[in-house]
Amino acid sequence: MYTRIAQHFVQTLSKALFVTTTIESNSNSWTLTAIGQTAGVSSAIQVLGDSTGDGANEWPQIVAQRIADDNSYLTVVMRKFYATTQEYQAPVVLQTGSSGERFLDFSTGTYGRVMPIEESQHLAGVIDIRVKMRMSDWTPAVDNTILGKSEGVDSHGWYVFINTSGQLSFAYSVDGSNVISMNVATATGFADGQDGWCRWVWTPDTGGGNKTLSTYKSIDGVTWTQLGITTTSAGAVVLFNNATTPYSCGGTYGESAPPQVLRIYEVEIRDGLNGPIMAPLLPDLWSQFSSASAYSIGAPILTIVNGSVSGAALSYLSNANIVKKMTPDFGQEVSFLSCSHNDGLLYGGDYTSAYRAWIAAIKARLPGSAIVALTQNPQTDAAPYHAAHAARRPNIIAAAKSTGSDAIDIAASFLAVVAWESSLMTDNVHPNSSGQSLWADRVEQLLYAHST
Questions:
Q1: Are residues 372 and 261 in the same domain?
Q2: pTM score, two decimals?
Q3: Strands (DSSP E) found in 125-218
Q4: Which of 194, 313, 396, 448 is deepest in the core (most CB within 10 A)?
């Protein structure tokens, strides 16, 4: 049988297949044997850490590339956190799966997708909505509703749509019954059948007695061009809290899919301007409204959500706002936590407690994800804080055990190598390519390991 973490990872791959998945040993490598490689659900692996995992040739990307090499049916994507903007950069596609690009295909059903009510949080302040999509006609014959939290009389909240002039519009209600729309008088300019990112930023109260709507377009979802100028309307408002209405993707709740929407690739519902993302980004992680809901086609996506930041210490990585920004929901099945190098002289009971709190914060954001704490490679005696770094090793293992999490003792694997200082290190603190490969080996062994 598999270890608990291996079960989570195999679940990640099995979800992508909707079949039973087995792992076969081939010398020192593991190969996925599977059937039905065109169906399934996307999943992800989360990494949170410091400079030991932030480079293009370091262990998170090594593991990602190995998974891609062994599983041609998967699209494997690396997303890297950028500390300056507190955002993930444009995705790097390591491999496109054999079934092609993944999207919610509105030719396959009448309705879109929904989120459970308990996961459809009411947003009382600024709402920042971003959608990557394709339309057959970007100036549709009727208004096309894209995304929202609205149902009908007495349950209207908000939703975004594209009107017949091709303008991005925002609809809201303050009483659940009456709906008011705002738009910016500039169309996206996308060509019919073209993929594009659309963005709506609605502010219910500017602090000056007004409400505003700003709209944007983008090709990559990272660099945005504002459409026209911000629309300002007199009178601040309080959005109606329709607590029993879920988020819906592709129309409002219970509404059939809009006629001109061909594809939705990705959605972002953000709490505040550039705020944390409040729902899964990939539509195939949302629930079907009914048997007539649209299906996702194309290769399932395995996303490596790499929140490794050079210089990051535990105090940074466990900051409540940072945790929210670093953990967007891509369906993370496993989360690897890697921290110690930048924690100076801290160790002991206080460090163990702080690490436990970090684990708890990750579990709160990603409740379905198994947590794995990593000790890090040892530092040489010439490193200024090598002794405290070594003392944190048992603290990390203790924090993992006390929270029901797993741990990989990376330090032990380095110390088991004769002359590790010269063969596995690029300086007194950081591993070289051989050290990174060893680190990736240990992570991969846990992902695919059988228990005895």
A1: no
A2: 0.90
A3: 127-135, 144-149, 158-162, 167-172, 180-187, 195-203, 210-218
A4: 396
Distance (Å, rounded) from C-alpha 312 to C-alpha 81?
12
Do 352 and 284 fall into the same domain? Answer: no
Amino acid at 199: R
Distance, CA of 60 to CA of 304 (rounded, Å)? 8
Bridge-based pairing of strands 370-374 and 406-408 is: parallel
Half-sphere exposure of 213 (CA within 13 A, CB side): 25
* Residue 61 shares a structural domain with residue 191: no
On whether both 111 and 24 belong to a single domain, the answer is no
What is the number of structural domains in the chain? 2
**CA 57 from centre of chain:** 21
Phi, psi of 362 (to 5 degrees): -65, -40
**CA-CA-CA-CA dihedral for 145, 147, 152, 153, to nearest 10:** -100
> Could you tell me the two tokens for 373?
């704490």
Biggest CA–CA distance in the chain, Å, is 73
Regarding whether 356 and 290 lie in a shared domain, the answer is no
pLDDT 10s digits, 329-376 = 999 999 999 999 999 999 999 999 999 999 999 999 999 899 999 999
- The whole-angstrom separation of Cα 106 and Cα 104 is 6
* CB-based contact 185:228 (threshold 8 Å): yes
| CATH code for position 31 | 3.40.50.1110
Nearest to 130 by CA among 88, 178, 82: 88
Residue 290 confidence (pLDDT):
85
Say whether both 179 and 124 belong to one domain: yes
- Residues 186-218 as b/e (b if ≥16 CB within 10 A, e otherwise) read bbbebeeeebbbbbbbbbbbeeeeebbbbbbbb
Q: Buried b vs exposed e over 307-344: b needs ≥16 C-beta within 10 Å?
A: bbbeebbbeebbeeebbbbbbbbbbbbbbbbbbbbbbe
Domain check: are 173 and 265 in the same one?
yes
Which CATH number covers residue 111?
A: 2.60.120
The neighbour count for residue 380, using CB atoms within 10 Å, is: 13
Please say which residue of 282, 297, 312 terminates a domain. Answer: 297
pLDDT of res. 220: 94
For residues 109 and 96, state if they share a domain: no
Q: Which amino acid is at 57?
A: N
**Helix or strand (DSSP H, E) at 61:** helix 59-70
> Does residue 327 sit in helix, strand or coil?
coil
Question: End-to-end alpha-carbon separation of the chain, Å?
Answer: 8
**Which of 244, 276, 297 is where one domain is finished?**
297
Residue-number span of the structural domain to which 283 is assigned: 104-297
Place of tokens 């009448």: 110
pLDDT, tens digit, 9 for 90 and up, residues 115-165: 999 999 999 999 999 999 999 999 999 999 999 999 988 899 999 999 999
